[in-house]
Write a structure and sequence with these properties.
This protein is mainly alpha-helical. It has 2 domains: 35-88, no CATH class; 111-394, Up-down Bundle (Fumarate Reductase Cytochrome B subunit), CATH 1.20.950. It contains 13 helices and 2 strands. It has helices at 2-24, 38-45, 53-56, 80-88, 111-144, 163-231, 239-246, 264-288, 296-306, 308-311, 323-352, 370-376, 378-394, and strands at 157-159, 367-369. It has a two-stranded antiparallel sheet with strand order 1-2. The longest helix is centred in the middle third of the chain and has 69 residues, at 163-231. It is elongated. It starts with a helix and ends with a helix. Bound molecules: protoporphyrin IX containing FE. Residues 160, 169, 172-173, 176-177, 227, 262, 266, 269-270, 273, 345, 348-349, 352-353, 359-360, 362-363 line the site of protoporphyrin IX containing FE.
């Protein structure tokens, strides 16, 4: 019996020793000339730890490599894996005659992730958001119908926006819509227009769309600056907003909560346009002047300092970004924020046109029916009337 137990343990330890030796034995890579094998690739794809030491070795040829101080031999003074790794992680000492921030970057390996994200989730969720908003507005229209002027029309009008204010608004609206349409052509053209129009047809449209997008962007930025200066004083939050919000703007009954020139809903639209539109403009400038205005590394650094990404479980954001990575982030941010602003602005367009009787006149002729103004902006009407009375008295 004892002999049997001894034999069992002996054979077990032999088997363990053999398997340990097998695990430690260097993989035979002679078939690939010392480069990685299919097994290495498969292990890496399965997420297993792969010992990459072999990639920095010259597979026994270290002695054959020429010293960097002497005339270089066939394989130079560095092993290929070292060189490729340095190129891949942008640490190679590359010099070029071209003076350009990204000219020395020969390999940039986040490109595939960016392309896939751009053609996948960005497009799906972006359009999902915009179509979802349109669906909600249709539902809202079916439930609530058009918001009518409740009281008797007075036949008198009040000047709501001067011509210069209306010019700024339509410059903003026109440029935003053009930018949206041409932006969609840039984003989805390759996927959807090439199959429909062929490469030549798409090429002409894409060149035109890009030209319009790049140039109209200046009109959009100018309009944002104009409306900011015209309307910022009327959009500072105050106590009337709390009451307006608590009453849901009176949208589903409950009377008309008092409001000044802009109610809380409009203030939300205004600040969305200023903040999101400003952010779209900043990332747009970064795209308009490739590699010259990188913004993300600096932004990530600030966010890390405030601990914001850590707070939401993202850990420290990488601040060592290659020039191309900066461009990819700028493109994604530009498109994501544009989709969000588009969804918000669609709701605004609805309320400013079919959704509310009498609203469009404010941006059409600039003159609104006094009864409309009393219902939706009662405090503003009182202000206007008080000023008129004051002007009349002093006259
Ligand atoms: C194209 C259709 C559009 C229509 C019919 C429209 C209509 C209007 C109207 C009637 C007003 C005045 C509301 C009032 O008197 O209280 C207004 C204001 C405003 N619009 Fe538009 N708009 C359009 C597009 C846009 C776009 C594309 C933007 C921005 C990208 C925009 C931004 C604003 C802002 C910031 C205000 C002031 C805040 C507010 O009233 O919500 N509009 N718009």
């Amino acid at each position: 019996m004892l002999r049997l137990i001894c034999a069992f343990f002996l054979s077990l330890s032999c088997a363990l020793a053999a398997s340990a030796q097998e695990a430690e034995a260097p993989r035979d890579r002679s078939a690939t000339g010392g480069a990685q094998t299919l097994e290495d690739i498969m292990e890496r794809q399965q997420g297993l730890a792969v010992d990459n030491a072999f990639r920095s070795e010259l597979n026994g040829e270290a002695a054959a490599a020429a010293a960097t101080t002497e005339q270089l031999g066939a394989r130079g003074g560095a092993s290929d894996p070292d060189l490729w790794r340095a190129l891949r992680f942008d640490s190679a000492d590359v010099t070029t005659q071209i003076q350009h921030p990204a000219a020395t970057v020969l390999i940039q390996d986040t490109g595939m992730w960016w392309v896939q994200f751009r053609e996948g989730p960005l497009t799906t969720y972006g359009f999902g958001l915009v179509l979802g908003m349109i669906g909600l507005l249709v539902l809202f229209y079916l439930i609530r119908g058009r918001i009518r002027i409740d009281g008797e029309r007075t036949g008198r009008t009040i000047l709501r926006f001067t011509s210069i204010e209306r010019f700024a608004h339509w410059l903003l609206a026109g440029s935003f819509i053009l930018l949206g349409l041409t932006g969609i052509i840039s984003l989805l053209g390759r996927q959807f227009l090439i199959p429909a129009l062929g490469p030549d047809g798409f090429s002409a449209i894409a060149i035109g769309a890009k030209w319009i997008h790049n140039n109209v962007s200046w009109a959009f930025m100018l309009a944002i600056v104009l409306i900011f200066f015209f309307w910022v004083v009327h959009n500072l939050p105050d106590r009337t907003d709390i009451n307006w919000l608590l009453k849901g703007g009176g949208i589903f009954g409950g009377g008309h909560p008092p409001a000044k020139k802009f109610n809380a809903g409009q203030k939300f639209i205004f600040w969305s346009v200023i903040i999101l539109g400003g952010s779209i403009s900043a990332s747009g400038l970064s795209l308009l002047f490739p590699f010259e205005l990188p913004m993300f590394a600096a932004t990530f650094e600030k966010l890390n300092q405030f601990g914001i990404p850590q707070l939401i479980g993202l850990g420290e954001l990488n601040t060592d970004l290659a020039p191309h990575t900066e461009m990819q982030y700028a493109q994604l941010w530009h498109a994501i924020v544009s989709f969000v602003l588009f969804a918000i602005v669609i709701a605004h367009i609805y309320i400013g046109s079919v959704g509310m009787e009498g609203a469009y006149d404010a941006m059409g002729s600039g003159e609104v029916e006094e009864q409309w103004a009393r219902e939706h902006h009662s405090l503003w009407v009182e202000e206007v009337k008080a000023k008129e009375a004051q002007a009349g008295n002093s006259a």
